[in-house]
Design brief:
Blueprint (H helix, E strand, L loop, with lengths): L1 H15 L36 E6 L4 E5 L4 E10 L3 E6 L2 E2 L22 E10 L8 E8 L4 E11 L14 E15 L4 E3 L1 E6 L3 E5 L12 E3 L5 E3 L8 E9 L2 E12 L4
Parallel strand pairs: 2-8, 9-16
Antiparallel strand pairs: 1-3, 3-6, 4-5, 4-7, 6-9, 7-8, 9-11, 10-14, 12-15, 13-14, 15-16
Length: 266
């Protein structure tokens, strides 16, 4: 019954929490690696539901037309089991972006105890565009079993304007590059909620709980140096929106993550 319950949750959460999982029209998907293992014989024998999966929920446009000096953002969201990571490639080569899911996750007591289901969002910032930025940019989402990609062709038109791209002197306001959008995990397990940021000076990251109170680190909660939130011994009362807040002297950025504690199978 657990898998069937999870299936219902995965179907209903996007509808009820529409601001957390954004659906878009199907666009071109670009193969990024044909050697990735695909779990074809992947269904649970009892329910027929997939144990592992991956899907791009939100994709950047197929073509982005911009002009020199403009600032643009490409955004991508993927959901799956295990929880996917996202990175970006430019003309087939990985762009230097923070990789959110490479470090060790909390350990489960056994292989069946952890759900590790959810969705991840990521943004690629194209600042002060020039004709050198004309290229193909690919959002790649992957977990241990699947990989999916979608490509945007960026076209940069020459500008006749004398106005150049303006940047704040002495720094940059915070940006949240990659974050957990939704996370489903069994009660009793530990859960890592990702929030990776950039800015100059380095932003200070704090988290707000579902009541929007500031989270203080204790035996229950820990905020990692990279900005992630670790929730230990997940309970039903922990369900709700957790808000990552990144701040420096130039501004503030926020991102929400919806946490759903599931009842483990007995």
């Amino acid at each position: 019954m657990l898998h069937r319950t999870l299936f219902v949750v995965l179907v209903t959460i996007p509808c009820v929490m529409s601001r957390h999982i954004e659906h878009s029209e199907s666009r071109r998907e670009t193969p990024v690696n044909e050697n990735v293992h695909r779990a074809d014989d992947n269904n649970d024998e009892r329910t027929g539901l997939p144990r592992t999966h991956l899907r791009l929920h939100s994709k950047p446009p197929r073509v982005l037309q911009t002009t020199e000096g403009s600032n643009e953002i490409l955004e991508c969201q993927a959901g799956g089991s295990p929880l996917p990571r996202i990175y970006w490639m430019k003309n087939g080569r990985q762009v230097s972006q923070i990789d959110p899911i490479d470090e060790a996750r909390p350990k489960a007591t056994n292989d069946e105890a952890r759900l590790d289901i959810g969705s991840t969002s990521s943004r690629l910032y194209l600042d002060c565009g020039t004709t050198r930025d004309r290229d193909e940019y690919t959002c790649v989402a992957e977990n241990a079993y699947h990989r999916e990609g979608t490509t945007t062709t960026v076209r940069v038109a020459s500008s006749t304007s004398d106005e150049g791209c303006t940047k704040k002197d002495g720094g940059q306001a915070p940006r949240i590059l990659t974050w957990t959008k939704t996370a489903l995990e069994n009660q009793g397990q530990d859960l890592r909620v990702v929030c990776r940021v950039e800015g100059e000076p380095r932003p200070r990251v704090q988290w707000l709980n579902p009541r929007e109170d500031r989270i203080e680190e204790n035996a229950k909660f820990q905020i990692s140096m990279n900005g992630d939130l670790l929730i230990r011994n997940l309970k039903w009362k922990d369900m709700g929106n957790y808000i990552c807040v990144a701040e420096n002297i130039h501004g503030t950025a926020r991102a929400e993550a919806f946490v759903y504690p599931a009842t483990p199978e007995t």
